[in-house]
Amino acid sequence: MFALIIHTLKKITAKMSILFWQVLLIALFLFTIYNLYKVSQSKESTSQKLLYAFLILFFPLLGSLFYFFVSRNKQKIN
């Protein structure tokens, strides 16, 4: 009986782990697309837009987080 419970919990945990990573990857993809859209709509110079876009495309997590916080700080200053 105890072995059946352990086996069932392992199967549930494995499925939850896969689901967790799938949701995380989808969220990262959407966050990257959102930031690329924000870059394209920004009033930055073309060279800055290209720099941000390449940063986001080559380093999706770090580039997206960097642009997200930099653009928020620029909006607060203006």
Features:
single chain; 78 residues; mainly alpha; 3 helices; 91% helix
What does this molecule look like?
The structure is a single chain. Helix 1 runs antiparallel to helix 2 and helix 1 packs across helix 3 (60-77). It is rod-shaped and about 65 Å long. 91% of the residues lie in helices and 0% in strands. The chain has helices at residues 2-41, 46-58, 60-77. It starts with a helix and ends with a helix. The mean pLDDT is 85. The protein is mainly alpha-helical and 78 residues long.
How do the helices and strands line up, and which of them pair or pack?
Blueprint: H1 2-41, H2 46-58, H3 60-77
Number of strands: 0
For the termini, the CA-CA separation is 65 Å
Contiguous runs where pLDDT drops below 50 for at least 5 residues: none
Query: What portion of the residues fall into strands of 2 or more residues?
Result: under 5%
Query: Could you tell me the mean pLDDT?
Result: 85
* C-alpha Rg (nearest Å): 20 Å
The structural class is mainly alpha
Order of helices and strands: HHH
Shape: rod-shaped
What is shown here, in short?
By secondary structure, the chain is mainly alpha-helical. 91% of the residues lie in helices and 0% in strands. It has 3 helices and no strands.
